[in-house]
Specification:
The chain is α/β, with parallel strands linked by helices. Helices cover about 20% and strands about 40% of the residues. Strand 2 and strand 3 form a beta hairpin. The longest helix is centred in the first third of the chain and has 12 residues.
Length: about 120
């Protein structure tokens, strides 16, 4: 039985990475077990680990569900210097999504349910 999960993203500079992800997630880390490593519990039992190291090319994306794609896109462009990114949708898919990258090339993104009834 699966009861928990972690996803790890590597950044070349942990202090800069910590500050960037604190702004991205709008809060400080939940756990700092040792030097070069910070963690956020995104939802119960689901952890994002940011570790100092060489970013993995081609990994991801890690997509985070948000209430408003447009507001979050505007926020990360203004606050974090993320490049403008498109918001995509398909008629047969219940979400819209937008891919972007952090300063280290890690593939991230947001998604938003098109209908509140789809949101669980």
């Amino acid at each position: 039985m699966i009861y928990e999960m972690t996803v790890q993203i590597r950044v070349a500079d942990i202090e800069r990475g910590r500050r960037w992800y604190e702004s991205f997630l709008k809060r400080k880390p939940d756990f700092i077990p040792h030097e070069g490593f910070v963690e956020w519990e995104l939802i119960p039992g689901s952890w994002l680990q940011v570790a100092e190291g060489t970013p993995s090319e081609g990994s991801g994306p890690l997509r985070i569900g948000v209430d408003s794609m447009e507001k979050e896109r505007e926020r990360v462009i203004e606050e974090l210097g993320v490049e403008f990114f498109e918001i995509y949708s398909r008629e047969e898919v219940p979400v819209k999504w937008g891919p972007f990258s952090d300063p280290w090339g890690n593939s991230l993104g947001f998604f938003e349910y098109v209908s509140e009834k789809e949101k669980a």
